[in-house]
């Protein structure tokens, strides 16, 4: 990284590193990306997790039960205000687990999740403060153009 890189570029790199750690299943590196202070996380369909222990335990469980995962990030936007930054993106996720019978990798499943990642500046760089992922349940093209909401 060049000394001229902006805060937004540094946050985007930290955001990318977060997903790369998940893809590799590198729990130690993933843990180092989070603040030591009070942190929060919402995985799609999960309750709010609060505190370093709960949040990191959730990632350990995800890594232990996911044979393969790959993220293709789109729509990445970063906003920095002082020592806080927000990165939003669409997680285009491809994942798979072991097949029930053979133990080999089962079928791959695709999923879209929109995510908000909040970072704080520290002396060691930008660290995650909060992650919130929400599933995308409908395409933007699926808007109902019916004028009568009762139908």
Describe the structure.
Keywords: Isomerase. This is Ketosteroid isomerase-like protein. Strands 2-1-6-5-4-3 form a six-stranded mixed sheet, with helices on one face. The chain has a single domain (7-136), classed as Nuclear Transport Factor 2, Chain: A. The longest helix is centred in the N-terminal third of the chain and has 18 residues, at 7-24. The protein is 25% helix and 38% strand. It has helices at residues 7-24, 27-33, 52-64; strands at residues 40-42, 49-50, 68-81, 84-96, 109-122, 125-135. With 151 residues, the chain is of the alpha+beta class. The termini are far apart. The protein contains three helices and six strands.
Instruction: Provide the low-confidence segments as ranges.
Output: none
Overall helicity: 25-40%
| Strand order within the widest beta sheet | 2-1-6-5-4-3
Rg calculated over all Cα atoms: 18 Å
